[in-house]
């Protein structure tokens, strides 16, 4: 399978714990995006990388959220001190940076904070 | 924020064409129209995109009006597996995808 993969697919945690999600993009894609999706809503953009550079992070929901892409390949999204309101689907997408930029999405990580 | 308007829901009989409309009256000259769909609990799936010409691929056809203020996604022979939420997005290079709430399409047997 050469698509975008995410791990884990499901995560249950207790309020106050830290969680980290991983995304592996399509191998030749230089852009990587993180989105959050809550029930009944469309995906909401959080941040993105071009290679290892994080080009937009102003839409990360709070300073408890951070993302890295250290070698320009896989990326991690960390949520510190989780809250019940963080319960959502976290989606990753990758693309090639070009005019007709098509993003390809992974299956998502579903987070439940108890 | 989302620059498109879509009906919240639509039904279509199995085997018939599903025509999903999208209004994007403020679209800029360099913005493309993209369509994605999301089947329950899965990641969004790319369907098709276009700038100003009509486009067709193995999944669907995209019809964009001459003034580019609206478009229609056509699934020529809808099947039960096409039941999903369909998102219409306008975007230009270097900007972010904004998803609205999409159209929930139900294909009825």
How would you explain this protein's 3D organization?
- The complex is a heterodimer of chains A (about 110) and B (about 110).
- Chain A is mostly beta strands.
- Chain A is about 0% helix and about 50% strand.
- Chain A has no helices and eleven strands.
- In chain A, the strands form two sheets. In chain A, strands 2, 4, 5, 6, 9, 10 and 11 form a seven-stranded mixed beta sheet that branches. A four-stranded antiparallel beta sheet of chain A has the order 1-3-8-7, with no helix packed on it.
- In chain A, a hairpin with a 6-residue loop joins strand 7 and strand 8.
- Chain B has strands at about 10-15, 20-25, 30-40, 45-50, 55, 60-65, 70-75, 85-90, 105-109.
- In chain B, a hairpin with a 4-residue loop joins strand 5 (about 55) and strand 6.
- Classes of the chains: A mainly beta (about 110), B mainly beta (about 110).
- Chains A and B meet through strand 5, strand 9 and strand 10 of A and strand 3, strand 4 and strand 8 of B.
> Which oligomerization state do the chains in this entry correspond to?
heterodimer
Could you give the order of strands across the largest sheet of chain B?
1-9-8-3-4
Low-confidence stretches of chain B: none
SSE sequence of chain B, one letter per element: EEEEEEEEE
Beta-strand percentage of chain A?
over 45%
The number of helices of chain A is 0
Give the total of beta strands of chain A: 11
Keywords:
heterodimer; A: 114 residues; mainly beta; seven-stranded mixed sheet; 0% helix; B: 109 residues; five-stranded mixed sheet; four-stranded antiparallel sheet; 46% strand; globular
Secondary structure layout plus pairing:
The complex is a heterodimer of chains A (114) and B (109).
Chain A (H helix, E strand, L loop, with lengths): L4 E3 L2 E4 L5 E6 L6 E7 L6 E7 L2 E4 L8 E4 L6 E5 L8 E8 L8 E2 L3 E5 L1
Parallel strand pairs in A: 2-11
Antiparallel strand pairs in A: 1-3, 3-8, 4-5, 4-9, 5-6, 7-8, 9-10, 9-11
Chain B lengths: L8 E5 L4 E6 L8 E7 L6 E6 L4 E2 L4 E4 L5 E6 L8 E8 L11 E6 L1
Parallel strand pairs in B: 1-9
Antiparallel strand pairs in B: 2-7, 3-4, 3-8, 5-6, 6-7, 8-9
């Amino acid at each position: 399978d050469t698509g975008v993969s995410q791990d884990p697919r499901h995560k249950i945690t207790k309020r106050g714990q830290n969680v980290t999600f991983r995304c592996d993009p399509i191998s030749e894609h230089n852009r990587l995006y993180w989105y959050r999706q809550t029930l009944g809503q469309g995906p909401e953009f959080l941040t993105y990388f071009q290679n290892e550079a994080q080009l937009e992070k102003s839409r990360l929901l709070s300073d408890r959220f951070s993302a890295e892409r250290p070698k320009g390949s896989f990326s991690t999204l960390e949520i510190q001190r989780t809250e019940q309101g963080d319960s959502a689907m976290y989606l990753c997408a990758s693309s090639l940076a070009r005019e007709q930029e098509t993003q390809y999405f992974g299956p998502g990580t579903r987070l439940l904070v108890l | 924020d989302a620059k498109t308007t879509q009906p919240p829901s639509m039904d279509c009989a199995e085997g018939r064409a599903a025509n999903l409309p999208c209004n994007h009256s403020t679209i800029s000259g360099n913005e493309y129209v993209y369509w994605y769909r999301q089947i329950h609990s899965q990641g969004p799936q790319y369907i098709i995109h276009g700038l100003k010409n009509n486009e067709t691929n193995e999944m669907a056809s995209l019809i964009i009006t001459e003034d580019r203020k609206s478009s229609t996604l056509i699934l020529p022979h809808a099947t039960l597996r096409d039941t999903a939420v369909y998102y219409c997005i306008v975007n230009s290079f270097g900007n972010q995808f904004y998803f609205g709430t999409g159209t929930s399409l139900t294909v009825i047997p």
